[in-house]
Amino acid sequence: MQSYAVITAVRNEAAHIDRTIRAVLAQDVRPVRWAIASDGSTDGTDDIVAAHSRRHPFIVLVRVDGDADRNFGSKVRALHAAEAALAGRDYDCIANLDGDITFGPAYFSTLLERLCHDPRLGIAGGWIHEDYGRGFVPRRQNMRAMVPHAVQCVRRACYEQIGGYAPLRYGGEDTCAVVEAQMRGWRVQAFDDLPVRHYRRTASAGSVLRNRFRQGRADQALGYAPWFEALKCARRVLDPPAVIGSALWLSGFAWSYVTAEPRPVSPEFVAFLRSQQRARLANPRQPIATVP
Fold this sequence. Notes:
The structure is a single chain. The protein has helices at residues 17-25, 45-55, 72-84, 107-117, 156-162, 173-183, 208-222, 226-235, 242-258, 267-282, and strands at 4-10, 34-39, 59-64, 93-97, 101-103, 121-131, 136-138, 151-155, 187-198. By secondary structure, it is an alpha/beta fold. The chain folds into 2 domains: 4-198, Alpha-Beta Complex (Spore Coat Polysaccharide Biosynthesis Protein SpsA, Chain A); 208-282. A hairpin with a 4-residue loop joins strand 6 (121-131) and strand 7 (136-138). Helix 7 (208-222) crosses helix 9. The longest helix is centred in the C-terminal third of the chain and has 17 residues, at 242-258. The chain starts with a strand and ends in a 10-residue tail after the last helix.
């Protein structure tokens, strides 16, 4: 059985972090260390984590002076601070968990077993379930070849090869990690038999409409082909907040595209991602990495 460490970046997750910690404490196999970086929290998150840390020394609270506003660059810097707290620990995999999720007690033991049996599996994770008003159901954007940041478990060799998480201004560090891994020949898989409950729906922090515009800018920053972005927004037209959300998503992409905003990824990255998008158009069943 492989060993694992966990990093988590949280900001004002007092409503959820306790249940996430209890889910990890209930695991068949616990992590060698779990570093939780509080990114400028002001709502009691630190107190909850500190209380658990006193009872369970493998949990470490890392306090980070975050930016005034919630943003993805600040989140990744907090993840880097959490990663630094793993120094001196021996582990085979590093898991990045959000602070608002839960899963069953065999979650990590199952993931580790699958990583052990498949040496080319670089990034693995569970299947996100969210509550749309009638109980938890699988998230509509789930894909087997895309493991979202909330539940990414990365083989250490893969993590080091891709250079960890990139602090992208508009987010998408999880997709960036997936594409970088696939470029280097690693497999990526989300497992639909490992359900994960996500209590704060994706992109619900702050203004939902502002987040839709930001997500479009994130796609442009990663090098999405305009035609693929248009198809993606059309497919999401039924997702709340429906048409206006998709329109703002596409507007954010168009704004960054027209203003020729510099991309933080290499031309090779963009070429690889777009080749996957063309393959997806030719064969819709082919699993590729896309931002959920």
